[in-house]
Specification:
With 461 residues, the chain is α/β, with parallel strands linked by helices. The protein has 21 helices and 13 strands. The strands form 3 sheets. Strands 3-4-12-9-10-11 form a 6-stranded mixed beta sheet, with helices on both faces. It has a 5-stranded parallel beta sheet with strand order 8-5-6-7-13, with helices on both faces. Strands 1-2 form a two-stranded antiparallel ribbon. The protein is globular. It has helices at 15-21, 40-44, 49-56, 58-61, 67-75, 110-128, 141-150, 169-176, 192-205, 223-241, 257-267, 284-291, 315-323, 328-336, 347-350, 353-356, 364-378, 384-396, 416-421, 431-434, 452-460, and strands spanning 3-5, 30-32, 88-91, 96-100, 131-137, 156-162, 183-188, 213-216, 247-252, 272-279, 357-361, 404-408, 444-446. Bound molecules: pyridoxal-5'-phosphate (PLP). Residues 108, 110, 140-141, 220, 252-258, 306-307, 385, 409-410 line the site of pyridoxal-5'-phosphate. Residues 108, 110, 140-141, 220, 252-258, 306-307, 385, 409-410 line the site of pyridoxal-5'-phosphate (PLP).
Length: 461
């Protein structure tokens, strides 16, 4: 299995090259050369999430790692979860179940993708006798999951930019209280977009790297994160109906990584009915799915900060695979003139949307309302991101066939202020979060308007 770019120029890449490179040289996103077919009867015989991962992951990694190597990596990949099988499925009513993906050490679903990324990074670095810098920006949960996943590997130093933004105090503390010699949280005086610009610049310049050192991207376009997420769609389907009937999945979305993982699973054979794409007021995806208009607008700060984006970076993969059916020339044209020219797909192509996708945008007021009413009705507290997915499902109730699985992407205790405002009291705060309250924060403050961030990395490298 090799990989190629959605924009056509970068191709015949091994898994390891894709892992280390992150983004393709032509600016596109990496795709597998074909969708590997999953033997559903084999999955039906499996029990755990890990069993499924051991079948799915090697479908993508053969170009770089032997089966034995992958097996060994996976045995040690997902760690510090607070329940044995990593995921809990909570039945809500006859037609709805919640997939709790927040039982990892940072209490958000990003642990699934980033622990896998870190494990493969480390293996690759060790094989090549190299070290690496992880350099990224975070608007919420990516930074903490990346730091947590990488901190145990001496071959990796993590430099994470934390913007002036509205991430919760807990989210910030998850990064600033780690106190390990290979972890460097940076409080940057700029917006998330400013931080992303610096990261982009860093990936072009690479001036702070030493010889024989890799620069690694942990943002959601890295294919390895998608792989980790594909596994839990098969797991959900196995546990709910032994993959015997299609399911709907309602997914709270920002960069479209989690939705694309669901789409990928369906291309590999997962029985799927509809994907419900739930967004907050940053509604670029909803505008596309409803009216074929993918146009960038300013980021609005919401109570679901991990979904506050102006463009959904993984969406290029869907445009390429689903709408353009692999036409990399057209994909390249479209994206080279975006965001100046909004994306509109030929009408007959765009009509395919309704076969698979429903979408909805939820504002903060209705997110609050949903958290409250869900607790009142089902005695179950959801976080604001999950509430976006719940509220979206409510719009389509009655018109959906089959059961619906709502992805719960974060533990509500990550957002205490929002919970307070909603008058919701969480009784079971994970110890990984409650222990943060009294810890001392250590982070350097740096400017995004000069070279100080690159200088800082160089000094500490
Ligand atoms: C990152 C994140 C999302 C959005 O995931 P994407 O894959 O970027 O769409 C949703 N909820 C939470 C809690 C997150 O951390």
């Amino acid at each position: 299995m090799f990989f190629h770019s959605t924009r056509g120029k970068d191709k015949n890449k091994t898994f390891e090259e894709v892992l280390i490179q992150g983004l393709a040289d032509d600016g596109g996103l990496f795709m597998p050369d074909y969708w590997p077919e999953v033997d559903l009867s084999y999955i039906r015989k499996q029990e755990s999430f890990l069993d499924i991962a051991k079948y799915i992951i090697p479908l993508f990694t053969k170009s770089s790692f032997s089966e034995n190597e992958v097996e060994e990596i996976l045995n040690n990949t997902w760690h510090d979860f607070d329940i044995k099988d990593l995921i809990n499925i909570k039945p809500i009513n006859k037609s709805i179940k919640i997939l709790e993906l927040f039982h990892g050490p940072t209490a958000a679903f990003k642990d699934f993708g980033l622990q896998l990324a870190a494990a493969f990074f480390n293996k690759s670095l060790n094989k090549q006798n190299k070290t690496a810098i992880v350099f990224g920006a975070t608007s919420g949960d990516t930074g903490s999951a990346a730091i947590d996943a990488c901190k145990k590997f001496d071959s990796i130093k993590s430099f994470i930019l934390i913007p002036d933004g509205n991430m919760s105090e807990i989210q910030r503390k998850q990064m600033t209280t780690v106190k390990k010699s290979n972890v460097f949280p940076i409080l940057a005086d700029g917006t998330f977009d400013d931080c992303q610009d610096i990261v982009k610049k860093g990936f072009q310049e690479r001036s702070f790297l030493r010889n024989n050192q890799n620069l690694l991207a942990v943002n959601s376009i890295n294919w390895v994160r998608i792989m980790g997420q594909i596994c839990y769609y098969f797991y959900a389907s196995l546990k709910i109906n032994k993959l015997s009937k299609p399911l709907n999945f309602s997914i709270p979305t920002g960069n479209f990584g989690n939705v694309f993982s669901c789409y990928a699973a369906s291309k590999m054979g997962l029985p799927l009915s509809k994907i419900i794409v739930g967004v907050n007021e940053n509604n670029i995806l909803d505008r596309f799915f409803k009216s074929n208009n993918y146009s960038r607008s300013k980021v609005i700060e919401t109570i679901s900060p991990s979904m506050d984006i102006s463009v959904a970076s993984n969406f290029e993969r869907l445009i390429y695979d689903f709408y353009l059916e692999g036409d990399s020339k057209r994909c390249s044209e479209i994206y080279l003139s975006f965001p100046n020219t909004p994306i509109t797909i030929d009408k007959d192509m765009w009509e395919k949307t309704r076969k698979l996708f429903l979408s909805y945008s939820v504002d903060d007021i209705n997110t609050y309302k949903c958290m409250k009413s869900f607790n009142a009705e089902y005695n179950y507290i959801i976080d604001p991101h999950t509430a976006v997915a719940v509220e979206s499902v409510m719009q389509f109730e009655g018109s959906l066939d089959y059961e619906t699985v709502i992805l719960s992407t974060a533990h509500p205790a990550k957002f205490p202020k929002t919970m307070n405002k909603a008058d919701l009291n969480i009784s079971n705060i994970p110890s990984s979060l409650s222990s943060l309250i009294d810890k001392e924060e250590v982070a350097i403050k740096l400017s995004t308007s000069d070279n100080s961030i690159f200088e800082y990395i160089k000094q500490n490298n």
